[in-house]
Write a structure and sequence with these properties.
Structural class: alpha+beta
Oligomer: single chain
Order of helices and strands: EEEEEHHEE
Helix content: 10-25%
Distance between the termini: 18 Å
Length: 128
């Protein structure tokens, strides 16, 4: 079992610009961030404050730590395969982003609610 970062609606509304279009518990990945909002998590686009669902390819600003019965290698493969499903090409940092997500998930206990803002994770609430 490994920790992974997955979508949740918990703590939605903590920030006035929260949104969640990803089904509960769907693993998420780092999406494409536009030039205009890259360093502005509260910019109009929302791309620098959200993560994208592995299956639905929609975005959410709230995520949680959950567990999946996978190895690290299986998770990285799943992440890259999901990225391929977006229709974007594999970027040189796609595997690096998978590593970033994997490592971030290992830093928090299961159940912790997180937000992602301009490339940084922070806890919104502790594990319960």
């Amino acid at each position: 079992m490994i920790n992974v970062i997955a979508s949740t609606v918990k703590t939605q509304g903590f920030r006035r610009n929260d949104f969640c279009f990803v089904p509960e518990d769907e693993p998420v990945m780092i999406g494409v961030v536009c030039d205009k909002d890259a360093k502005k998590p509260d910019g109009s686009c929302g791309c620098s404050r959200s993560l994208v669902g592995f299956g639905c390819y929609k975005a959410t600003t709230t995520v949680k730590i959950t567990e999946m019965d996978l190895t690290k290698e299986q998770y990285i493969t799943m992440y890259i395969n999901s990225w391929l499903g977006t229709g974007y090409p594999i970027f040189k940092d796609t595997a690096l982003n998978a590593e970033i997500m994997f490592n971030a998930a290992q830093r928090y206990p299961k159940g912790t609610i997180l937000e992602y803002r301009a490339g940084m994770f922070s806890a919104r609430s502790a594990a319960r």
